[in-house]
Automatic annotation (TrEMBL):
Pfam families: Response_reg. GO terms for molecular function: DNA binding. Keywords: Cytoplasm, DNA-binding, Phosphoprotein. This is Response regulator receiver domain-containing protein. It comes from Paenibacillus cellulosilyticus. Residues 3-86 form the Response regulatory domain. PANTHER family: HISTIDINE KINASE-RELATED, TRANSCRIPTIONAL REGULATORY PROTEIN HPTR. Transmembrane segments: none annotated. The keyword Plastid does not apply.
Amino acid sequence: MYKVFLVDDEPFVLEGLKLLVDWKSRGFEVCGEASNGEEALAAIVQYCPDLVITDIRMPVMDGLELIRQTREYLADSIRFIVLSGM
């Protein structure tokens, strides 16, 4: 099973991502979630997910900075999907 970590500052988006996708049938388990990049970075280092789905615009640390810092700590071992809303 692959591990996926979800990051978004909108609680309804996080909940939607968890409920709208049948993660288990696709070989994934949601290993955690965070509402900003700073929280996410600490959890990503701890859980080492295979995939991170992140928003770009978030308080404290945005999604692009999260990706940059994650790559600094963990090289290219984690894949990212970036979400952007209007």
